Amino acid sequence: MASLTLNHIYKVYPNGVKAVNDFCMEIADKEFIVFVGPSGCGKSTTLRMIAGLEEITAGELYIGDVLVNDMEPKDRDIAMVFQNYALYPHMTVYENMAFGLRLRKVPKDEIDKKVREAANILGITEYLDRKPKAMSGGQRQRVALGRAIVREPKVFLLDEPLSNLDAKLRTAMRSEISKLHHKLQTTFIYVTHDQVEAMTMGTRIVVMKDGYVQQIDTPRNLYRFPGNKFVAGFIGTPQMNFFDGTLTRHGDSVTVALDGTDVRLEVPVSYFDKAERSYLKGDKSVTIGIRAEHISVDPARYPFKAKCRVSHVEELGTDCQVYADFNVQSEETVAESPTRVIVKAPAGSTYDIDQIIEVSLDMAQIHLFDKETEVTIAPRIPKAVEVDGTVAGGTLSLLGGKVALPPAMKVEDGNYQITVPTSAVSLGGTLAAKVVSEEDVNGLRLLRLAVGDRVLFAIVPADAKATGAVKIDVDMKQVTLSKEGETVLPALAVTNVLPAKLLKRREEVTTEVNGASKTKKVDVYSLDVCRCSFDCSEAVAFRILSGGGADILSKKLAVHVDAYKLHVGEKGIDAVVKGVEDYGAEKFLRCTVTHTEVKPRNEGVVTEDITVYVAVDADAVAAYGKEGSSIKLTFDADDIAVYEVARDIRLA
Ligand code: ADP
After folding, report:
1. Are 73 and 61 in contact (CB under 8 A)?
2. Whose CA is nearest to atom 18 of ligand 1?
3. E strand or H helix at 560, and its extent?
4. How far separated are the first and last CA of the chain, in Å rounded?
5. Is the minimum distance from the CB of 42 to ligand 1 under 6 angstroms?
6. pLDDT less than 50: residues of the chain
């Protein structure tokens, strides 16, 4: 039994293929995790890194609370089952299962007990004396599972274990593996390219594509709340219908228009609460997704109706799938038409070819994606809400209330669009709001708040009192003010990015060994940031070295250090104060630091002024806040993120 932590894990193969990028996940004890995605997306590589069969380029892997990056596979207490079984052909089933235990010098009677128990769990007791070649694929895979079970590992890793089996056997084995997980009460990580396997077995699923994690969630949440078009299309059969279209708001409703069709649906604006407003102006093409099961051949089922022309019907016994086209004049074959739609209909439904039928759509179930990025424009936790506001004499009127603008936010009087991130909204403060509803989003408590004539969202602590009328606060440093789409006042960038290099020096250290002092030379590493050197702990240096490779000393690095982790000190990076950003309760020094870089082949130097923000208290503002003050900035080199710039890898 064990939990696992994957912390910013990367894999770059020697040929430069970035197979896994920034994989972060906490796996709880006893979970059944499925990695799913098309071939080549990095599932096996991730699994093999967990097994210890593949070196981790950067990042940290913990099993329980032990860092195992450099632990031998045999010491990790995991067992792996492969697609090709990997049984020894000359050994009987019994011997195949006992072999690993014998190598570990487990007493004979204990081996016997474990082998028989495992055989019993898997229903292969009667085959114990057989050789693998006299068994079917399904039976062989059971033996492979048995060989893993007898080791009583903390974690089971299964790499496409069913893909050599025929369809019927796969379904049977699927439920057997689920039952096995239930019986063994151990953590399982299972790799497959088959979304049905993922959906039916996983307690949580990791959807991957091109080396990147797309989404980690429960099967139900992946189906209901896909975070991008790829996940939406990958999960569910038949595949979600996708259309290009536009959304245009008129007062309380939004017209949903599907390109290339006459479909125009008038939908209440409340259906789009979570959607980014800029997509509701009708001038941006969006991808609209709706599943076959959310379209009904009964035109009275939902109030949103559309006509389509039937192409053909597939009878599935339990129901049927109607292939049709929303472009009733379409000349294209339905398979290639961008306006093709699949509708689920009751079993036995019959339609004529080219018959025009009216369907109704459950518009509460549609999915909206940006056409270019394919990311949802209506995430479960909305990133931000854009509202209208007016500034007059240093006071911002928005959402039926007034907020005094802090000194850092000096803008001319006038009307603005105010982008309020969800992370900026909290309980307390002065704006009157009403809690309309709340939902649990993967353990986070999301409130839907009616504020003035708009809806805002807030993440609040689980135990916060939040019902009915409440007061809310907006963290003004996170807010952006714009006019006609142009940013007038951006949110404060609290993460500072500074160029860096790793330096190595030799140092003599003296240690006492049995009363005698011994001197030896060791390598000491430091990060050089804008001509100031910060010593790294051994652990951080080790991570940078092992992730960065042999030529790490010549590579460009970047340290990410947020405003709260930078301090004014006696030693540190030279910085010049340019001003104070005063947000009332919080104050920041705005400084510039100068980075100098020698161009290759000594072709002169380039200098760059970088703006840096430092969180400070009122005393520090009094001491250093004058424009032109020279200060020194320092940070704890063990408490920052270090990136390798060229490969965009987080090393530490
Ligand atoms: P999946 O299991 O999702 O099919 P893999 O993890 O096997 O994908 O592979 C991810 C990517 O890494 C692919 O582009 C693959 O070609 C590449 N890859 C896998 N193994 C190696 C290797 N040993 N050397 C170089 N590239 C590799």
Report:
1. no
2. 19
3. strand 557-562
4. 28
5. yes
6. none
